[in-house]
Amino acid sequence: MTRNYSAKRLPKHAGAAGWNAILEPMRPARVLSENTEVDFAVIGGGFAGLSAARRLSQLNPGARIALLEAGRIGEGAAGRNSGFMIDLPHDLTSDNYAGESERSDQKITRLNRMAIDFAHSMVEEFCVDAAYFRHEGKINGAGCEASHARNISYAGHLEQLGEDYQLLDAEDMARLTGSRYYRSGLYTPGTVMLQPAGYVRQVATGLGDLVDIYEDTPALSFSRTGAGWTIRTPAANLDAGKIILCNNGHLESFGIKRGRLMHVFLFACMTEELDETARRRLGGEGRWGITPSDPMGATIRRIDAGQGGNRIVTRSWAEFCPGMETSERQMCRATASMRRKFDDRFPQIAGMPMEYSWSGHLCLSRNGVSVTGEIDDGVYAACCQNGLGTTRGTLTGICAAEQASREKSVVTEFFGKQEEPSLLPPPPISTLGATAILRWKEWQARKE
Ligand SMILES: Cc1cc2nc3c(=O)[nH]c(=O)nc-3n(C[C@H](O)[C@H](O)[C@H](O)COP(=O)(O)OP(=O)(O)OC[C@H]3O[C@@H](n4cnc5c(N)ncnc54)[C@H](O)[C@@H]3O)c2cc1C
């Protein structure tokens, strides 16, 4: 029997990825243009793909490794997120991010910190700009009493875990952000703040000495040929002994884990450069990052020249999109909601034009697990990162590379014990149900 996996769809992005747009222009892509043979092929150039390629090169010195990215590195979700590489549990389905138990939260925190250390070692090795990867910590901002209570409850949980934190009052929040919107904040020091597009682009550049990286080169299909696999791309084929799929939600585009992955799109926007007058009116410090104390609220970041300009980035609004793309109408609704949230927080610069607005793909499972492990002979997956793809993507990438190299570690042990993603109700029930839940939760979190 021929085993053939064909991509039913390829990634489609809506809106310019602001983080990438504010960096220096990209060099022309290196496209796979002639038939090539490698030991390992990685499909997807986000957090998972880059980490998998790096780990493969560590474990298999001298092996031929290629990475195929459908578009440009920095243009996909890895360059469209808010850049919070969080060390602590970040369970989006809970009320305050806490996980199911103290023990599991401690384990996840240890693993998340391993991912951060792994990413940091790439930053050092590949001379990634220090401003793209800062150990700065982040704040859970509370805009109302209920959210403040959530912060207090999360602080109690951190206490039990033995984690550092600091509670900030409304004055502290105003001093930091220039906004009088926040009732309180909960600072935790372990989060790394990324310039996400800068980070993935520069890691890819450094990795380019060890791995052949082909962009604008989507994997259209892969099929079993002899002892390996042939990956078809628009201009040439890539023969690989083993494949690691790091294409997140697009795993399902190859017919894998069908009906088990939830495709949610998040929206974000970035102001134009804040000139001196706007900065004076805004006040506050030049760089900070706030996640909402209710997971369904808005994430707000202020960045400075080191990350590509003095700007504010707002992330809010979610849509369930089983077709893996967003519509113009959804983008309009999301930008209107983000405009409101921005103006509520910063009345002193209300109406500040948004230079970039975009959406990005998040892949979730109902039971919060990722897809890892060998899914066919010599085909491994590092997909479905749930809410925290910067750290989880790095971890699943490490995991898949280790599994493909027959290496055991605490990472492979952790993911080896995960169940498979639970089945979703059939459409349209899943779409109607998920959309109703998202709208209800967003309404509940409207002050956040
Ligand atoms: C607005 C927004 C804000 C977010 N904020 C945060 C945050 O602050 N912190 C956090 O941890 N997470 C955040 N996330 C989630 C995070 O961005 C993702 O979970 C993360 O990018 C997943 O990493 P990944 O490498 O698994 O997948 P991706 O980054 O999606 O990379 C997969 C890559 O595979 C490529 N691909 C797909 N199909 C093919 C194919 N057939 N051939 C070749 N290549 C293919 C895609 O082009 C893509 O580049 C946010 C997401 C969004 C959209």
Automatic annotation (TrEMBL):
GO MF annotation: an example: oxidoreductase activity
Keywords: Oxidoreductase
Pfam assignment, any one: DAO
Gene Ontology annotations for the cellular component aspect, listed alphabetically: cytoplasm
Alphabetized PANTHER family for the sequence: FAD DEPENDENT OXIDOREDUCTASE DOMAIN-CONTAINING PROTEIN, SARCOSINE DEHYDROGENASE-RELATED
Ranges for domain FAD dependent oxidoreductase: 39-402
Name this protein carries in UniProt: FAD-binding oxidoreductase
Organism superkingdom: Bacteria
SUPFAM superfamilies assigned to the protein according to its UniProt record, in alphabetical order: FAD/NAD(P)-binding domain
